[in-house]
Amino acid sequence: MKLGLFCGAAALALAIPALAEPITPKVGALPSPAEAFPTEPGSDYYLANYDAYEKYLKTLAAQSDRMKLVDIGKSAEGRTMWVAIVSSPANLAKLDRYREVARRLAKAEGVNETEAKALAAEGRAIVWIDAGLHATETVTTQSQIHVLYRMLTAQDAETKRILDETIVLFGHDNPDGLQLVADWYMRNPNPKDREFRTIPRLYQKYVGHDNNRDSFMSQMPETTAINRVLFREWFPQIIFNQHQTGPAGMVVFVPPFRDPFNYNYSPIVMTQLQEVGAAMHSRLVSEQKGGSGMRSAAPYSTWHNGMVRSVAYFHNSIGLLTEIIGGPTPEKIPLIPELQLARNDEPLPIGPREWHLKDSLEYQNSLNRAVLDYAARNRERLLMNIWRMGDQSIARGKRDSWTITPKSVDAVKEAAKGKVAEGGETYFRGPPPVETGLYKTVLQDPAKRDPRAYVLPPTQRDTPTTVAFLNALLKTGVDIEQATTAFTAGGKRYPAGSYVVKTAQAYRPHVVDMFEPQDHPHDLEYPGGPPKAPYDITGYTLAYQMGVQFDRVLDGFDGSFTRVTAEQIAPPPGRVLGSGTAGYIVGHETNNSFILTNRLLKAGVPVSWLDSATKAGGVSFAPGALWIPATPAATQIIQAAAPLGVDAYRVPKAPSGARTALKPVRVGLVDRYGGVMPAGWTRWLLEQYEFPFEVVYPQTLDAGDLKSKFDVLVFADGTVPVERGGAYPGGYRFTMPKPSEIPAEYRGWLGEVSKDKSVPAIDAFARAGGTVITVGSANALASMLSPAIQPALVTKKADGTLAALDHKEFYIPGSVLRASVDPTKPLAYGMAPEVDLFFDESQSFTPAAGLTPIVTYNSATPLRSGWAVGQEKLKGTVAVAQTDLGSGKLFAMGPEVTQRAQPYASFKLLFNGILYGPASTGVK
Beta strand pairing status for 453-456 and 492-494? Predict the structure, then answer.
């Protein structure tokens, strides 16, 4: 009987599927991920959303003495952003002290080497490890849940050492995106139908993937919160930004990175980064986790300042990026024969196999542990080196110094022509030596010294924009001073109120990178070959993009200055000047004047642009100044607008001459299913400047009768499909889901701007008096609408169609160019005669009959910052133009005039277009 019962029980046990082992076993009383979630994160076909993630963080913080949960701000949609601070209980009890130690070492000001050594001995290594920045890169959040639990429960020697020697800041960068993507994925009851490829909108409210291009500008609330933690509060020595996806046929990209190396930051950053990268690869290889690659395995470089891990370099922190494969839906690693041979950049290849989210999770855990183990073992060295970099930056800002750039090297080569170097031989295929005296005469030419400071006088064309520039610096931890009395610098007298940004500060690399032009190397695939595409943009000098007036001061100076301590400053309040009673004149130079204009129009208050220059109260106004007749409503709105920093001048009588009466406008901002990032940035800008608008999708365009709904249609870069190999490079490509695959509420967003349906409807809209504005690659639409809009940077193919010039002939990937402006034209009212434009493989236009140039390239060398091949081809072409379409207007803007909400100097082109088009209806 007993044997029979045993056999029956065994048979029953074999018939019941065994419960799956948890990915992370439970340890102690703390709830494990398997217990805390409906399905354990990391399991196939499951994603935990932010609500569940947040709840688990609170549970862990309430029950663990190794973790403290800190609210660092709100997301764009209002969710709380949390940072889980993990360390030993003893360290958590002294967080304020360790944060102060980290601040003093990172800022280095007033700390000598003896004091630094003492602080380094006392302090703890601070490491930031984030998750979820790009929400469809789902591995990072799901794995962070497990990494946290293991750190809070493990008792091994390595964990205890990490807890004792480090303070780890586990952050989540994009709560809204996680909620959107996880909920979208889990909406299908059938696991095999789950996907997030077809999410209907961007996974950050406005900018989607570009939330990792906002670091130096800090426009999004999430970026501002992260920057505050990194550069104003905690000053981590390591900033680890985790991403997807890995290179095909591999598992994960891990630093170090390929060239180019940005010459503005400290070389210590890169040498330590290589140490950490080696530790990460070594950990994976030692654990037989194959498929990691570095350098040539992927296109990532360390040039551009705008990303979470790269802004770190300009703040003397080690910025790490990993890109791993995986997701909740299992996938397969393909076989790529070339990757099966081990090499320096891929030491342990991996063969083809099925891959699950839990596999990625274990790699993530190993990478996190490798970074933390390195930090724990090198605690004092990390702390001392961040001090050394800051101290060296301060010292460099106090003496004559030079930055060697590609142009500097070219200048030495040019000066060396025809001269014979004394002694020395070429080393094994290396470049030949040149006369050593050229180091002093060329590379250390006194006229080429680095600035000791940048001075921004209070008399700016657009003071609120200058304040926005200063706020971008402040939000990234830069030290700024303001003069309390007049002072002299560089032989020039500056008044009290001037802002001074000295380079003798720890974050000197970031300061210089924001003021000075980027000189990107001439990087070719091979000698004589085509340009090698950069990972991102090559020129982005923020002071240029924002049109800030500043002076570079090469010699030391002093004065009475006070340090700006606030995270943000406000522009000087706008004033109401004069004593006339007829009305108000407001200059057009400030971007904030558009906020005032939109408030007046919303209230039904008359507003006009004066089409000629005028004077009031001894002040000269350029064409485009606002004329606002005096009414109680106008007075109330103008007085309430003082925080905008816009001055209004009372005058005794209305100005003479022609004027353009503005109208309330109905703006349609064109987007598409899934969201286009430039459209999202434009949406954010329109909200900031209080333009009324609604988002429009192609089905609405195709339905026609657009003039009854809108006065203006705005097509941002990427919103119009472009032909591959055609005249207009760029564009965004996305396969639309079938209507049956998505909820009914989103089906009206499907479709593309098309030549057969959309273009006739848009043409009819314009000819009935509507205004069409096209930016960047969306000018493909402009060329369809008007024969006057012809791309200039093209060649004719054998079939007679046009193609953009080959990259060997013309290539400008994300750079800043100087162009000439006609500020007497309404589209350019308020602008200076020259402007710095952001140009990213953009098109330019050929002068033609019926085309009115507004902005033109009049130089053969327009490059101001970045990299350009064939820039001379731009000379004589048109950057921004207008033409009539029936009773309406077409404004074609070749460059990206609102690029990532950075080029404030060119915002007026869009804003003027929105107001001028409807105001000029019927006017020729």
Answer: unpaired
What is the Cβ-side half-sphere exposure of residue 282, based on CA atoms within 13 angstroms?
A: 10
581-634: pLDDT as tens digits = 999 999 999 999 999 999 999 999 999 999 999 998 889 999 999 999 999 999
**All residues at 6 or more sequence positions from 664 whose CB lies less than 8 Å from its CB, including other chains:** 601, 602, 604, 692
CA distance 705 to 762: 9
d(CA 138, CA 637): 47
Q: How far is Cα 212 from Cα 220, in angstroms, rounded to an integer? A: 10
- Give the pLDDT confidence of 500-544 residue by residue, as tens digits: 999 999 999 999 999 999 999 999 999 999 999 999 999 999 999
| Rounded distance between C-alpha atoms, residue 698 and residue 682, angstroms | 17
Q: Where are the beta strands (DSSP E) in 554-666?
A: 561-563, 576-577, 583-586, 608-610, 614-616, 619-621, 626-629, 648-651, 659-661
Give 649's strand partners: 577, 585
The DSSP string of 370-425 is: HHHHHHHHTHHHHHHHHHHHHHHHHHHHTS------HHHHHHHHHHHTT---SS--
Which backbone phi and psi does 204 adopt, to 5 degrees? -120, 140
> What's the alpha-carbon Rg for the chain, to the nearest Å?
30
459 burial (CB, 10 Å; 0-12 / 13-18 / 19+) is exposed
Cis peptide before 245 (omega within 30 of 0): yes
The terminus-to-terminus CA distance of the chain in angstroms comes to 105
**Predicted confidence band of residue 424 (pLDDT cuts 50, 70, 90):** low
Q: At what angle do helices 221-228 and 463-475 cross, to 10 degrees?
A: 50
Please state the pTM of the whole predicted model.
0.96
Q: Hey, how many other C-beta atoms are within 10 angstroms of the C-beta on 215? A: 27
**Cα dist. 177→50, 145, 216, 307 in Å?**
9, 17, 21, 18
